[in-house]
C-alpha cells in the first residue's frame, strides 16, 4: 500500500512514474537564442495542438510573439492565453485584417475537421479544410508570409506501401480528410513555386498529448490514459492489432519549431514525413500495465474508424526530415506513458488544467 498513489478511484504504483525531465523545453530555448522572434498567428488555436504551441512560443520569445484565434469561446481555465481573437478561416478578409493589424509574419494554420468528424459532415470538411487553406495561402502570397499547414498520415491510402512509408509515394486516400490534406499539400507547394510563398508542411502521425483530442482516428491513444486513471479500464474502438504511427506532443511542437526555423535552402521538399514510434492498442495497454498493473482493455470496434486506420501507414520513413533539418524525436512509447501519467496526475491535483507540453 506504501508504494501506491490513490488517483481518483485507481491505485497507481508510485515508483513507476519518472519525474518529468528537468527542462523538457530546453531544446526550444536553444533555437530561440539563434532566431529573431516571429509574429505568429495560430488558427484553430483552441484545438488539441494550438494551446501547446502557444505555450512553447511564449516560453521561447515572450507573450508578444503569438496571436491566437479560433471560432469558439475561450474556456474559463485558459489563463495561458493572452491575445485571443475570433477568426473564421472561411472569411479571407478577416484573416487579412488580423495579419495587417497585428503585423503577422508567420501563420500556423491548425483549423481543420479531422478524419472521423470529417466523414460525418463532408460539405463542412470541404469548406474548412479546402476553402480555409485557399484563403490562408492567398493572404500569405499577398503579404509575403511564412506558412505552416500540417498534413497527416491520412494523406496516404490503401494503395500506399504501409510499412516505412516514404515521403514520395502513392497518395490515394479514401477519406475526405485525406483528400483535403493532399489538396493542401499540393496547393501549398504550387503557391511556393508559383508565387514564392514560404510554405512548409509535415505529415503528422497521431499526436498524443494531455489535452482532449479533436475527432481523429488515433484519439484512443489519448483517451486510454484518461480512462486508465478514471476507470482503470478502456474500451477501444480499434482492433487490438491495429498498428499506427504516433508521436508525443513535445516532439510534435519541436518538429514545428524546427521546420519553421530551418533555412529555406536546406529544405529539399516542402512536405516532410515525421514520426515518433508505432504501436497497437494491445501494446500500449501492455505499456500502461507496466505502470498500472490492474489496467484492463476490451474492444468494441467502430467500423468507420477501423476502416480508416486500415487504410493508413503502420510506420513512416522520416529520414529526409532527419537529414535536411535535423529532426530527432526524444519520446518513445515508455517515455510517453510516463509523461502522460505524470501530466494527468498533475492536472488532477491542480485546480486549473495543464494544457502545455512537457
Ligand atoms: P482540433 O480538431 O483539436 O482543432 C481544430 C480547431 O479548428 C478547433 O479548435 C476548431 O474550433 C477550429 N475550427 C473549425 N472550424 C473553423 C473555422 N471555420 N475557422 C477557424 N477555426 C475553425 O485539431 P488538432 O488536433 O489541434 O489539429 C491541428 C492540425 O493538425 C489539423 O490541421 C490536423 O489535421 C493536424 N493533425 C493533427 C493530428 C492530431 O493527432 N491531433 C495528426 C495529424 C495532423
From TrEMBL:
SUPFAM superfamilies cross-referenced by the UniProt entry: NAD(P)-binding Rossmann-fold domains
Pathway entry: Amino-acid degradation; L-threonine degradation via oxydo-reductase pathway; glycine from L-threonine: step 1/2
Recorded GO MF terms: L-threonine 3-dehydrogenase activity
Reactions listed under catalytic activity: L-threonine + NAD(+) = (2S)-2-amino-3-oxobutanoate + NADH + H(+)
Top-level enzyme category: oxidoreductase
Pfam families, per database record: Epimerase (PF01370)
First and last residue of the signal peptide: none
EC numbers on record: 1.1.1.103
Limits of the NAD-dependent epimerase/dehydratase domain: 40-274
Function noted in UniProt: Catalyzes the NAD(+)-dependent oxidation of L-threonine to 2-amino-3-ketobutyrate, mediating L-threonine catabolism.
Sequence similarity: Belongs to the NAD(P)-dependent epimerase/dehydratase family.
Name of the protein described by the UniProt record: L-threonine 3-dehydrogenase, mitochondrial
Organism: Caenorhabditis briggsae
